[in-house]
Structures are given as C-alpha cells and as structure tokens.
Amino acid sequence: MYQFTLQDDSLGGRIGFAVDGTTLRVRDALEGEELLLYADREPDPRPALPELFPFPVDRAVSFDAESLSIPAYASVSVREVGGEFVAQLDDPMELPRGSYCVDVNGVTKVLIRVTDVEMETTGAAGSGPVELRFDRPRTVTVGARSLHSRPEATITVPDDPTALASAVSVLGSSIKEFSPERSWPTLRGYPPRIERGSALDIPSPLVEPDTGVEVVVRPTYADVYRLSTLAYYLGARMVTGNAPAIRLDTGYVESLPTDGVALEERSEALLRTWFFLDTLARTEGYVPSDRYEYEQVGPELPFYPPNLADRPMSERLMEYLEVDPETVAPYMPDWPTKAVLRPVPEAAELLPHLAHVLAPVRVRGSADPAVDAPVALATSPRFAPERGVPNPDDDPLPAGTSVLTPTAYENRLRRATTSRGEVRVVAIVDAAERAAALRRALSQPAVPGGVGSWDVLERPDSETVESVLSDPDVDIAYCELPIDGGRVVAADGFVSIDGLDNAPEMVVFAGTDDIEIARSAVANSGLSAAVAGGIQPPVQIRGLVGLLAAGMPVAASLSLSEYSEQTAVRLVGDPGTTLASNNGMAVTVGTVRSRTPDEHQFEYESVLSLSVPMGYEYTLLFPRDNRHSELIGRTQVDGSVLNSAQVVELSEQSDSILRLNGSFVFRNDGLTEAQVEESARRALARNAETDDPANARSDTQPEQPHGDR
User: Fold this and answer.
1) C-alpha angle 381/656/603, rounded to 5°?
2) Residue ranges of region Disordered (predicted)?
C-alpha cells in the first residue's frame, strides 16, 4: 500500500489518504474510520487546495480518473461546483456538461469535485455502490472533512483562571468556519479536552480562531465559566480585565453585567439570540431551507438575515445587537442541558463537553465543598422544568437534577452506540409477582420496537447481580433490589458497585435516593445512571424502556414516560445522553388527544440530545406534506385533526413515537382503528369525570392496557 498524507500541523492530521491498488482510502483519524472510493485506474494523488470546495474540508487531493465507485454511504447528492443543490442520487441520472461537486455522507464527509464533464450516475436506492462515470478521463479532486465527534487534542491547564481563559480561547479551534453556517452541528466539531496539570500546555495543532471578537472576563473561575460557551461559539479570544465585556474589531464594546446572576442571564440571552439569527442567516446557504420560524420572526427584524451571511462576524454581531432577545426567545428551542458549576478548578474539565452542546453555564455553590459533594449539576427543561437553579451544596439534591462528571462524557466517547433495534434490557426484581407483571408489560401487546433482547430476573444471587451490573453489552439495567449502604442486596448477600468494570450503558436503581450508587455505576464506565425514590407501575417502566430504546435521551424518556412524575428521580450524566442510535435523526413524539371517537387533535415535538445537538432542522412529512422546515427541539401545536386511520398510520412511522391519550404506542404494538376508537371513548369518559369536581382526576393519566398498576 502506498501511503499519501498531507502534512499540515494547523489541521492536526484529521484526514489522511492512502492508495491501495485502484482504491483511494479516505481515513478520518479522529473517528478511526475509512471511506473507500474505487477508481478505474490507480490514483496518483497530489495535494489540492481545500478552498476549491463550496463547503469546508480538512484536506484534499487530485488525481485522474474516468469513473469512481462509492461502495458505502449514508447519502449521496449532486451539487453545482458552487454548492447549489442539483439532486439526491436516489435514482440513475445523466447530467449535462457542467462542473459538479458530489456530496457523500458516510463514516466521514467526502466531496468529489469534477469540472467540464458529462456524468452518468447510478442510484443509491438499492444496496449496491453509487457509480460516477465521466465522458472522458478528468481531473478529480477529493476533499474530506472529519466528522470530528470527539476531541482532537488535550489542553493542560494549571489551577489558574487566567490560564484557563487562554485554554477557552482555543476551544473554537474545532469550528470549521465562522459564518452563520457554524450553527450547523456538523460544522462545529468537538472542542479539545481540558485537563488539570502543573503548567499551561496548548498542543501546536490548536490555534485561536481569528474572528475579531474578544470576550473580557475578570480573572475568576466564576466569570470564565459563565462566558465559556458563548466564547466558544463566537470563536472569541478570552482575555482578563476589570469588567466583563465583548469587544469587536469594529471598535464597539458591549459591556456586560458585573453581578454574577445578571451576567449569566445576559450571556445566555446573547448566545440564544445570536445563534438563532445565525440559523436564519444560513437559510440561503449550504442547505437552503424554507423555515417556519422565519415567517414568524422575519417581519420583526430590522434586516434581511441572509444578507449578513458573508459579512465579517463583528459587523454581523452589531446588526444582531439591534434585535431584542425577547423577539426570538419564543421560537428558539430550549437548551437540552443547562449546567451549574462550582467556582472551583475541578469544574474546568467539563467546559469542552458543555460547549459542544452549547450548554449555558451558571455558577453556584461553595468554593470549599464538602468531601464527595458534586462539582457540577445540570437541568433539562423536560426533566425538571421551572424548578429554579439547583445548588451543588443542596443536600439532598433536588429531584430532576443531574450530576455532571467528566467521566460520563469520556465514557460516551469511548463506547460504541447500540443500534436501534438491538438494545438489550435486563430487569432485576425482588418478587415473583412483580417479575410476572414486568414480563407482561414488556411483552404485551409486543416488545417495544427498539429492544433486541430482554430478560426479567427474579431474586437473583449475588453472582448474577454482579454479572449484570458489570456487563457492557447490557444497555438498560433496571434494578428494584434493595440498596443498603451503597450495596445491592441480592438473594444470598451484598454486591458492591464500587470497583466493578464495564457497567451497562444505563442503570436505574428504583426504590432508593442514594445518588452515590449511581455515581459508582458511571465511574465504572456507564453513560448514565438514575436513582428513583419509589417503585413505579409497569406501564411507566415499559414507556421508559421503549423511549430509551427508540433513541430518546434519558431525561426526556424519564419525563415523557411520566416515570419521573411519579417519584423523585436524580441522574448522573448529561440529561441529553442517548443509549440507542437513530441514524443521526431526532426522535419525534406525536401526541394525539381524542375529541370524538374518530376525531383526534394532533401536536408534535422533536427532541434534542447529545447525538442530535442544537442547530439541526427537520421537516414533518406526516400527516401533511410540504411543510416548512423548523429547528429540532420544539413542541408545535399542529392544528391538524386526524381520523382514526391516520392515527394508525402515524403509529407506523419509523422515526416517531405515538402518545395516544396519555399512553405510548410503539411501532411493534400493531395499533388498529378499533383500538384508537376504544382509547378515545375511555379518554372522553375520563375527561367527563374530570369536569365533575366530585370525580376530579388527571386527564393525562395513562391507560394501563394489561391491568398491572
């Protein structure tokens, strides 16, 4: 094999190229993946300019070829050489003479540029390769960009806020460009890690972005933390000074509050407003879109956002400052994660992970905490809405709170994500009756579609319990055994969680408030763990398992299943953690409330997560086609009224979950029109009882189809 790799330290070696016979191997070094291109002859690659492409690439090479074959891909589309969309390659096509850029999404991002050519292509509808055939041998230029879903390097920082400010200044090195297109998650990358050490060490591939923006902080951990995510998104240099501010290279200075709470509120408002306006400014950019939010907000703006797309950042921000944050706030998705950090150096290691999901940061708690007190917490609007800002000094921690640890994020970077449909579930319970009830709930009317295998263990011995809680192939472990002093009480003794290796992706410990046992599970390589103060009805457990297995993040799964509404739940790990891959797509929940037995009101919501972060758009194609696209992460009252047949069709959609009159219906459940109408009659009767003060009940009480409470 002939190895050909461009050397450029400023790019950090993210992409490499190798030739093996007639195969060009495009290697994404950060992801450890290769995308193959088969040529009709052995390529002789030579360096090419990344600027030749309409979208950012890390590296590029050119060679001569008359045809190329793409054997593995997620999607392939054709654009004009300037980036204008031509067609999705779902069917064979003949393209007239022109200059084209073929956009390949796969294990890495590849762009294939060829000019002055007639091109024939095969389609991507089948399982075979996509073929590109040119009318004659042409110079082909291949550019590639790392998916960059993990940190490229590690910055070492001493316990000094000023040094930390220097480290924050290079977090934006992962962002591919600083036009409004950076609001797309795929162009932001994963910021470099931060670790504590004896001296500041910023590896040579990492450089401060040149955006003309500075964020001024006082030399305190509190100031650095509160402004870190905003500085990352702006690609700003963070410097220390006497008063917080944002300086633009136009000479304008935006003063920021000196009060800590006011500072974090202003920082969040600016991040929300500028990010949202960037998503509007990009609507005529790389991925043209017709946005729902644009129709709502556009008339209120003093400018036409796409006209700002090519302006320098400082000029664009000055225009954005003319917009009242309250104008855009109703149309911006809620942050899936909001962080609360102590003003201590230990919290610095969390900053890159929080910046990656654009999490606003608040600062609370003592700088001299008690031993084993959490360094950082998080909230999620779907988990603990409107409960205020928790304090790491709270004892006990408020329900609906997540404990953040760097270990949980690092475990996620190390572990492969289970594919939807292959999720393994194991439940451990303490009584035969309870085991039978759970088995019925998990299997009737069918096992939730995302679950590949499941088991319910009744009164297992300590060896079995230890085996389950140290099995990395278990995705969801649900444990109802008693907890005593941080140990699980098995049939023949105790099992200590401390020191076990290779924990399941997620463990739910039911019937305990001991957050330390959840922290131990994550320390043992778990992604997330929860403690729940009570034992819940099987219907809630089935809903929780089904949502997690469908790719829903943990906090949203706990909330939507009403599991966390029935008992106090606390998490360890980011609330946006997902356990199952949904092919990079957000999970959509369609909520249906019956107005008559055959008329059903419809609304829907899409859910952000660590796997689908802020900035993605989607278009809802059912029940109505040709809708505007919208940002993922909002709830919409659609206004549609569905008949029972349409509700059944909705339940069969592969990328959505149906919530019918308070009960989840999963795709495998085989919903029928008769069942929809029976659900409607029960819901309408329940609502009639609720209207009578003598019989008041919750109109969202989920049905239990199998009689197990």
Assistant:
1) 65
2) 382-403, 677-709
* CA 132/CA 69 separation, integer angstroms: 6
| DSSP state letters, 608-672 | --SSS-TT-EE---SSSSSPPBEESS-EEEEEEEE-HHHHHHHHT-TTEEEEETTEEE-GGG---
Q: Which residue has the tokens 């475990």?
A: 411
Look at residues 395, 396, 348 and name the one whose alpha carbon lies nearest to residue 375: 348
Bridge partners, residue 660, by sequence: 592, 663
CATH code of the domain made up of 406-581: 3.40.50.1460
> pTM (2 decimals)?
0.92
Structure tokens at 336: 């899936």
Which region, left, alpha or beta, applies to residue 499 given φ > 0 means left and ψ of -120 to 50 means alpha? left
Q: Where are the domains of the chain?
A: 2-145, 154-364, 406-581, 588-695
Least confident of 283-287, 513-517, 703-707: 703-707
Q: Name every residue whose Cβ is closer than 8 Å to that of residue 370 and which is 6 or more positions away in sequence.
A: none
Report the C-alpha gap between 411 and 408 in whole angstroms.
Answer: 5
Cβ pair 660, 679 in contact under 8 A: yes
Q: How far is CA 248 from CA 87, 215, 237, 315, 317, in A?
A: 40, 9, 11, 8, 9
Percent of the chain exceeding pLDDT 70 equals 94
Name the packing angle between helices 538-549 and 432-443 (round to 10°).
50
| pLDDT for 499 | 81
**Predicted confidence band at 341 (pLDDT cuts at 50, 70, 90)?**
very high
Q: What is the DSSP letter of 693?
A: G
pLDDT in tens, 107-141: 999 999 999 999 999 987 777 899 999 999 999 99
Tell me, what DSSP letter sits at residue 291?
A: B
Q: What is the pLDDT of residues 493-516, one digit of tens each?
A: 999 998 888 999 999 999 999 999
Q: Look up residue 63 and give its two tokens.
A: 């060679």
